[in-house]
Write a structure and sequence with these properties.
- This protein is an alpha/beta fold.
- It is built from 19 helices and 14 strands.
- It has a five-stranded parallel beta sheet with strand order 2-1-3-4-5, sandwiched between helices.
- The longest helix is centred in the N-terminal third of the chain and has 28 residues.
């Protein structure tokens, strides 16, 4: 017979304690309630709860103080806060301090019970998680991510720390810094590593299709919906969903995403059956989200849900001491003859240390790939680099600079610059695609990686811009 889980309810309002105790006991939990923190801590001397439901605003100790004392007694006990709407920022602070979740008053019984179930499942894994956490803090690297600088060591420590929890993570930093690799590392080091890691670039999907990508659709939900399709949330059940460029979501999609995060359930587009999911969210953006909230283009309540544990991923120019080890790693990764070691001249590294790297690690990777193709006798010299990195201006017919800092058509001087000289975003994108294809000798897969696109997406864009695509290639990206 399974032993009942024991839950402590701490709230200075008797009606709230009684209501929550009733809901929990109806679910089969063993419940003890307390009107303040000191009485809860006193009870913990005789018995250890599996979970504590804790009001945020109390006396003589507020909820944060009570949580700190509980965590000092037993770090593995999950805490769920209950709070009024005007204390959301404090609740987010509590989440960063180690709370499992928070629920806003008036409490919804279904949401509260889902949160309790999830917290207790995490509690069952805590002893193993703490053992892994102790090991991970000894390490200063993450698989697939290279760096020994102070900023990267700090990042690795944050990754190890947050991987063992289940809170939402926001990865902040410029494009090309490796945010997706960080997200994958958090997933692989977490208790969800045996379950799916599903990613979605919100900027790469038309807004009209984004909801279908996230939540799936029923057969016949809209024109072209010939069969039922599971969305990213459903495919990530039990695992991690990585939402890249989350700031690009429309207001409508933000509203629906917030609802799913609150209720942990959704309906497919065109459906009415609720689907429960257990998904950890990791988001990323190169935008200033606080500014977006201030401009009312990003919802504040969604901001608080996603920005529980922010991690800043430094730009390459902020950690130039990592360039030598990054070069060594990338040379091994892309070497045309893996069994033959390739050396890099000191002058090349010196030039790299002074370059601003607007495209970050992605740009460096492109340069290394170019140099490996160009170099002879397994030695990379300055002469093997693209013109921009040799200190030269690209000549007509020369290979363009690697994607990450695309060379666009020159504009005129201010005196003769007119409206007809302005490039549209489509024209800029077309130029970038053409340069990527030239730099990779027409290798679409490599060009797609350099542009940060999927191969199928690049093929579609090539067709849209009138570029040459074979019938065989076209068939590879048509819906089946």
């Amino acid at each position: 017979m399974t032993e009942k889980k024991r839950i402590f309810v701490v709230d200075d309002e008797e009606s709230n304690r009684a209501m929550l105790q009733f809901w929990l006991e109806e679910e089969g939990y063993e419940v003890e309630s307390f009107e303040d923190g000191p009485s809860c801590l006193e009870a913990m001397k005789r018995i250890t709860p599996d979970l504590v439901c804790l009001d945020l605003m109390m006396t003589p100790w507020d909820g944060l103080e009570v949580m700190q004392r509980i965590k000092r007694a037993d770090e593995a006990i999950p805490i769920i806060f209950t709070t009024a709407k005007n204390a959301v920022e404090t609740a987010v602070k509590a989440m960063r301090g180690g709370a499992f979740d928070y629920q806003m008053k008036p409490l919804d019984p279904d949401r509260m019970l889902v949160s309790v179930r999830n917290a207790l499942e995490q509690r069952n894994l805590k002893s193993e998680v703490r053992r892994l956490k102790a090991q991970l803090h000894e390490r200063h690297s993450v698989d697939g991510i290279v760096g020994a600088s102070k900023k990267m060591r700090k990042l690795f420590q944050q990754v190890h720390k947050v991987a063992t929890s289940d809170v939402s993570v926001m990865l902040l930093g410029e494009s090309g810094t490796g945010k997706e690799l960080i997200a994958q590392a958090i997933h692989h080091l977490s208790g969800r590593s045996d379950n799916p890691f599903v990613d979605l670039n919100c900027a790469a999907i038309q807004d009209s299709l984004l909801e279908s990508e996230l939540f799936g659709h029923e057969k016949g939900a809209f024109t072209g919906a010939h069969s039922l399709r599971k969305g990213r949330f459903e495919r990530a059940d039990g695992g991690t969903l990585f939402l890249d460029e989350v700031a690009e979501m429309s207001h409508q999609t933000q509203v629906r995403l917030l609802r799913v995060l609150q209720e942990r359930s959704f309906e497919r587009v065109g459906g009415n059956r609720r689907i429960d999911v257990d998904v950890r969210i990791i988001s990323a953006t190169h935008r200033n989200l606080e500014q977006r909230v201030g401009e009312h283009s990003f919802r504040q309540d969604l901001y608080y849900r996603l920005m529980v544990f922010p991690i800043y991923v430094p730009a390459l120019r902020e950690r130039t001491e990592d360039i030598p080890v990054l070069c060594e790693h990338l040379i091994k990764k892309h070497s045309l003859e893996p069994e033959r070691p390739v050396r890099m001249d000191a002058e090349v590294l010196e030039r790299f240390s002074k370059h601003p790297w607007p495209g970050n690690v992605r740009e460096l990777e492109n340069v290394i790939q170019f140099a490996l193709v160009s170099c002879e006798d397994a030695r990379i010299r300055v002469s093997d680099l693209p013109p921009l990195y040799r200190g030269e201006q690209p000549q007509a017919g020369s290979p363009p600079a690697p994607v990450g800092s695309p060379v666009l058509p020159a504009v005129h001087s201010d005196d003769d610059f007119g409206a007809d000289d302005i490039l549209s975003m489509d024209e800029i994108e077309k130029v970038a695609i053409e340069q990527a294809l030239k730099a990779t000798s027409g290798n679409v897969s490599m060009a797609a990686r350099q542009l940060g696109l999927g191969r199928t997406t690049l093929y579609r864009k090539m067709v849209a811009y009138g570029m040459h695509v074979t019938e065989k290639e076209k068939s590879s990206f048509k819906p089946s």
